[in-house]
Amino acid sequence: MLSSMSAEEHLRLGEALAPLRDQGVLIVGSGMATHNLLGTGTPAASTAFNKWLRELLSDPRHSAEERRRALAEWERLAPHARLAHPREDHLIPVHVAAAAAGYSSATVIYDEMIGGAMSALSLRWD
Predict the structure, then answer these.
(1) How far is the C-alpha of 103 from the C-alpha of 39, rounded, in Å?
(2) What are the pLDDT digits (tens) for 44-61?
(3) Quick check: helix, strand or coil at residue 37?
(4) pLDDT tens per residue across span 91-104
(5) What pTM was estimated for this model as a whole?
């Protein structure tokens, strides 16, 4: 993770890693789809953000260009973005993973809300 926490820089990092997939290298991004331990978030805000992220990354109706733009502008486009992520350190790994996968559709392999305000959404790109 880059200290800048810049969505754009992390997307470019994932794009740079993309050729490794063709060489059989497994790229793993570990974080949380929502993560607010400060208690300022609400279950409704976390659920809305989780739904936005899940649909953005897994719905095949979204193009690669749409996914890239939405990830780059997540703070502006995602519902309750800063309630779901007061700091982006738990979200930014998905930017790298999605970019490394060429912004293709992901498969949802696990999706559970924990404690009402945290999401353990797990995605896989083939």
Answers:
(1) 32
(2) 889 999 999 999 999 999
(3) coil
(4) 999 999 999 999 99
(5) 0.93
